[in-house]
Each structure stands twice: as structure tokens, then as C-alpha cells.
Fold each of these.
Amino acid sequence: MTHKTSFATLAVSAVIASVAGAASAAPDIPCSTARLVVPYGAGGGSDIHARIIADAYNRLDVDPQLQVINITGQGGNKGAAEVANADPDGCTMLFQHEAILASYLTGRVDFSWDGFSPVAMTNVEPAIFAASPNAPFSDLDGLISYAKDNPGEVLAAASIASNTHFILLQFQDSLDISFNIIGYEGGRERVTALLSDTVQLGQVGESDGRQYFPDQLKALAIFADKRSDTLPDVPTAMEQGHDIEISMARGVLLPGGASDDLVALYAERFEKALQDPAAIESLTKMGSSIRFVGGQDYADWWADQAAQWEKVARDIGIYMVN
């Protein structure tokens, strides 16, 4: 069976040019070091991506410099809320992905993407699903067959009300199967659960794939239009007869109410940072593609994604916005 879905795919198909015309007078930022908040633990995918990008930014030798800060808890919501409530003075930023939408749509928080001032999308990463060492399936068709024969028995790891949760819900809905979804704080915790056979299914990043495939985890599929250069042995879902593409887009957001000049300044800087050869090499090895989308274009992307995700939440029956 071939099933086509546009859920969690990027509406942006090409790198969008720099925000036109940085402000003529640089805004005053009242700190020598700005916090780039990662709302997940150290060592996970978001943390590693943030540190690569922050290092490239700091090599621009501009003020303020960036310091990555991990604020964990509530599936990413604690750190996101801290940034949402911070002063929009340029001293605090959030490095996050579509989990903002998932948390809002499922009623876990009362703020969405528009509670922030979007600065720059930095990179996108296709989803990869893996099975635990002793899972009773070794490929995508095997998973589907087992899940159909044993409804609700496949234990699947996700960070509840995050993008990984939405992806699992959409995945099972599109293929007419069901999982028993178990909640974990972040990517590192999900991978640990997979490695220990605590769960049988989970989403992993390419860096985890390179570390654990094929000896410790079984690669089921990458949800992209082609195989990864760094994981060439992992088949796409399309190759296995399921026309599904799922990607995660990470980026930087200031607290809501940040001035246009401040957004433009940071967007210009992040665009330059993403041209850093060392950052390009490191992100590519992580399985990410650099994709800069700045300022208003990034805000428009969020608005488009929010509309798509709300439809999914309503269709699946998990829409909980008051």
C-alpha cells in the first residue's frame, strides 16, 4: 500500500535569501553573553545541533557571544516557557523545533509559536525509525504486519505532546496500526530505552544511527526522498512502498515582542554562521541539511505549519486548545 501524507514536511523547498537590509543602527543588547536555551538534556540531538551552531556564531566575533544552556523538564516545555517569559532584549533565545506546536495543540502549554519572535530556521533533519535489538520485526513491513496482528502491543518511545509524539500518532494513523506510546523526556532517554529493550520502536537521529546501527539497533526506515549519505544502508520508507516524508526543522526564536531590528540583526548573524565550513561539515555528519529561513519568512513558515498541525490534531482527536 502506498500512502501519501504531507504531515511534518517542510513547506519551504529551497534556502530563502537573507533578510533584506539589516538595521542601519544596531540595537543595544544589554549583555556580553546571550543564553541560547535548549529545552532538552545535554548530549541529545537538539543540544548537539545547538552547540555546533553556537560555536560557528561565536567565531563571528560579535557581541553578545552565545552560551548554550540546557533547561530540561516537561518534555521541553519548561525551557520554552522560560524563554517565552523572558525580556525580549536579545539576551535570551530558544533553540527548538515543532514541539512548540505539539505542546500547545495538546493543551500542555498556553503559548504557541506566536508567543515568540522567530529569528531563523537553521537546519532540517529527516526522521529515522529504529527497532530495539530483540523487537519481533526488522523492517517497516515487518513492523506494520506485527502491529496489525498485535494491536497496541508495540511499545513506542516518544516525548509526550512533542513532535516525536505527533509523528508517531500520524504514522500509526496513516498506516492503520496502533502503538502503546511510552513517554520519555528527550532523545537521549528514548535511545536508552530502545537499547535496553524497554521499548521496541523509536525515532533516532543520524548520529545515533551511526553509533548503533546495525549491531545494537535495527534500522527500519528513513522518511526522506532519498537515502542518507552518512547512513547509506538505511532504506527510505518510499523504497518500502510507503510514500511518507517526515522532517524536523530546528531554529532560533526570541521572546515575543522583540524589535524588528533585533530580529534582523540576529537573523543576519545566524545566516553568516551557517556558512561556516566547520559547522556545515558537522551538521552534515549529524544528518542535517542547513536551511536558513529568516525573519518574517520564518514566521510565515511557523504559521503554515501551525495550520497543518492543527488539522492533524483535530483529525486524530487530540486537539485540546481551550
Note: The two ends are 37 Å apart (CA to CA).
Amino acid sequence: MYRHQFCELVTGQLRCKWEAPAVWQELSDHIQDHQAALMAEGMGRDQAEEAAVAAMGDPEELGKALDVLHSPWPWRIYHAVRAVAIALLVLALCLGLGSFFGNGDSVNALLEDLGYALKERDPQYIMDRYVLTDSDTVQTTGTVTGGGAIGPYRLSPAGEALFLAQENGDTRLAFLVSTFHPQPWLESLYPDGQPCSAVDDLGNRYGPDQVSFLSTGGRLRDLCRVFLEDPDPAARRFTFTLDTDRGSITFTVALEGGEHT
């Protein structure tokens, strides 16, 4: 079982989707550290990864245990109260009730909070926080096109694609997808676990065990992370297909350096 497939199965058990990206990354880092230690002892790369994943135990049982520790309700209550508080403060500010605050400190705090909320939806911030690690080296970048609608959800590319190399020799292609729906009573799209595949211009095909599509936990608007593990470094064009029960959409990544014909 691949490392990222194991992490997908574990985080798929979590009801608290806001915690899923952090849990996914923590599990992945732990497996990579174990894999590196086994490789240092002379074990092959694939064998070391398989052994490191196996040492983590059953992914569904681990996911259920982590779900107990990461209940979604505190986060839901927190985000609901926070959203109401920000809305009320913005309304008071727009109505010119500065005297209600007594001084400028509360207004400054409000502006800082609003700035943080905007930063949480900034592609570069998400890329730096949830995609790049200290061991990543950007080999090349590329443009992302495509997208479309899945039911009430609109999906579109957000920023450029990154072809990454890691210290342990792994490679990864990563990009962000923005999702939006105008119905506040709906949850985020949460494409986690939905079949996602890819094909490149050299004819290589990558199945769901190599492609992941992860939500960062937004509601009306969200930024999702798309990863392709171990892409062919010679390929310059990749087409991703996300299949859901509401329909399918595709994204195309064209890396710098031209395309094969």
C-alpha cells in the first residue's frame, strides 16, 4: 500500500474535515521518517515504504481512533460563533459605531482577524502551509487549466502547478483548485476519497492510488490540494480527471519546457 493511499484511508474516517489536512501531513511525515530509517539500514525504497506503512497498523482502525480525538463539533461551533462575531463587528464598523469600541484597538483587532480569514483562502498561503515542506525542491512550474461544475459546486484552477522533488528521491506534482457554491446550508465539496486519475503526454496512466484530491475544509469557498505521486519527470503535460457521483471534470497541467506531441 502506498503512503498517500494509507493516509487517505485514515483521514477518510475523520468527520472533522478541518483537521484532515494536518493529520494527513503528520501521518505522511511519520511514514517517510520510518522509511528513511529503513533505507539507511539497506532496505530498498519500495520495500521500506511498504514496511513503514505496515508498521502503522490498520488504517480504518487508526482512523476511527483519531476520529474520537478530533470531534468535528468543537470546530463547527467555533467557526459558527466566529463567523457571527465577525459579521456583527463588520456591521458595527460599517455603521460608523466607532465610539462603541471606546478606542481603536478593537477596530484594529477586527481588521487583523479579517486579514487572517482572507489569508486562509490565499493560494500562496495554502501552498506554503499545506503543500510545501522543508524537504521539497521546486523543479519546475506549470499552468493549470480546466475545471467546471459538479452539481452546485464550481471548480477552477487556483495558481500554478509545482513539480516537486524531495530529499528521499520522491517526486510530486501539486496544484490547487478553488471550489465555490452559493448555498450556505451545503457543506464543502469534500472530494477526498473520490476516484481521481491522471494521464500524461507520454502515455503513462496514474490511478487513484497515486492521485489525491484533498479539501482544506472551507464551506462556500474552499481551496483543494491535488497531488500526483511519482509522476514521470520526462512528461510535460498531465490531464487529471475527478469522478464523483455528481459528475466528472478535468484539469490539465502544462509544465514549462514545452509539450510532447
Note: Confidence is low (pLDDT under 50) at residues 97-104, 109-120.
Amino acid sequence: MLVWSRSGRIVIWILAALLLGVLFLAPLAVIVVASFSQQWSGVLPTGFTIEHYSDVVSGASRDAIWASLATGLVASLVALVAGTWAALALRLQGERWGRLLGLLFFVPSAVPSVSVGLGLLVGFSQKPFLLNGTVAIVLIAHFVLVSAFTFGTVSAGLMRLAPDYEQVASSLGARPFYQLVHVTLPLIAPYLVAAFGLSFALSMGELGATVMLYPPGWVTLPVAIFGQTDRGDIFSGAALTMVLVVTTLALLLGLERLPLKAAASR
């Protein structure tokens, strides 16, 4: 740290704790309390219930959970394959071309998700690419929005990968495909898992493009939460928010526990 005195470090830790509590923990605590509340017209809620959570496992809320999980898994898996393929392909290009072409993957992350949704809505509303009103256009939107982060994470892993292992495998007669499957990909496996986890988390929380594109019957959790809170049903929206948080954290914690070793540094 840049503060060397004991009193200065104590002050910094207190300020950091206050900042963390006000900006992160306090809003989450309010959502947790609201999800169990019957009414909240004063400083504190009056009456507690689990009815909001019992409604989650049935009807439209249950469908929203499955829609979000399916969208997140499909979009993240496709983004992982495409991002990994692109990172491996650009690795073979020269530094100038690799950097220039790599920037194309980050274009969607440089514009608001609403702009991505609008572009897809206009681009796929006419034949022969009429996808407006289908689940496919939602999957495409999520893929476009998360692919940049997948590509960036895998590229970072490849940059840290020492070339010695691949050179040794090549000198022993390993074919390119065998080398890729048995040497390169296992060495960057932690980065692949991290890329999938990041993409899934981003997809689960995506709202801007989805609210412009989702068809009837395919309402994701963020859209359902937005709709409930917009109608004034704050408590049900809070319960759905907690389901979204717990589901995403559960997957990320499960991925973190996978016994994988990081790539060897250059």
C-alpha cells in the first residue's frame, strides 16, 4: 500500500469498509429484506413472508428462470467456441494484423447494449433473415454481447502460454490437431473456464438488448424483474433478483472449484 503509517492504514481500511458497505452490501441487504417483506411503508418493513419465493417456482417466474439459464448457457458456449477459435487463429497472424483484427471482437462491448439490440432488430426484421419475434434473435444478441469478453480472456491465457510445450510436442511428431487438444487447450483450461463463467454471468444480467428483442414466452429474469418493478411489485422483483444472484454465484463458485492448473508463463 502507499500508506506506511499504522494510523493511516486504519483510516484507509475504515473508509474502504464504509465504501464497500454503502455501495455493495447495503443495496444487497435491502433487496434481501424486501424479498421477505409484506409491506414497506416506513423505515423498516412490516410483516415477513416467503410467499414471494413460493411464486418463483411456478408460472411466469419459473419460465423466466429457465429462459435465462438456457439463453446464458447456449450463448456462453457458442461464444466460448467462437472466441477460442478466433484467439487461436489470430495467434498465428503477425502482431500487427492480430491486433487489428482482434479489435473487431471488442466493437460490441464499446457500444451500449441497446444499440446492439436496435441493430439486430432492424437487421433481422426482413426476409430472408426474418428472426424478429423468435428466440434465435435473443441468443444472437447475447452471443454478440459476451463474445468480446470470451475472446479477451482466452487471448490473455494464450499470451501467458510458454511456447516450449507446443514446440516439444511438435518436435516429437504431434500433429496440429493432437497438439491443440492435448497440449494447448489443457494448458489454458483455467482461462476457458473463466471465459465461460464471465460470459454466463454477463448473459444472466443482460437487459438492454433483451428487452427490445424478446418474443412472447421467452422472458428472461432481468426482463421479468424490470416488468415487475415497473408495475410496482417491488417485493416479487426482489425475490427474483435474489434468485438471479444465487443462481449466477452458484455456477461461478462451482466453476472456481474445478481442479485446473493455470498455463505456464512465458
Note: The two ends are 28 Å apart (CA to CA).
